[in-house]
Design goal:
alpha+beta; 3 strands
């Protein structure tokens, strides 16, 4: 799925495992001009890591579609909380669709479209690396 997204977007998404400090979250998104990096702590179990990947993919895709704010903290905590909820909902919907697909587990998965996201536009916001 990420390979297809990379081709479609023209900007790679790199999934990584890392040894992060105990004060860091279990996963994080780093956006640069060259690539977007999703880093998950090495000790996180596979199912939890999948959810973190889906959540961070939600941030990338919703921001790219101009439906969410940038990945950096926003001045308005309510906007940040709304973005987090949208990414979380995206992760749950993506997991449900993948798990329910007839080809689930065969390596031949195609992702059915997610429901349309209704959110006011936030054009002009960018995420600095």
């Amino acid at each position: 799925m990420v390979d297809r997204l990379n081709r479609h977007r023209g900007k790679p998404i790199r999934l990584m495992r890392g040894d992060l400090s105990g004060t860091m979250p279990t996963g994080l998104l780093l956006r640069t001009e060259a690539a977007d990096y999703i880093v998950v702590i090495r000790d996180v179990q596979r199912g939890h890591a999948r959810h973190i990947h889906f959540h961070e993919l939600g941030h990338i895709l919703l921001e790219d579609a101009d439906l969410a704010g940038p990945c950096l903290p926003q001045a308005d905590p309510r906007a940040r909380a709304a973005d987090e909820l949208m990414a979380e909902e995206f992760a749950h919907q993506l997991a449900e669709r993948i798990d329910a697909h007839p080809c689930a587990g065969t390596g031949a998965e195609t992702i059915p479209p997610l429901r349309r996201w209704a959110r006011p536009s936030r054009r002009g916001r960018t995420c600095a690396a």
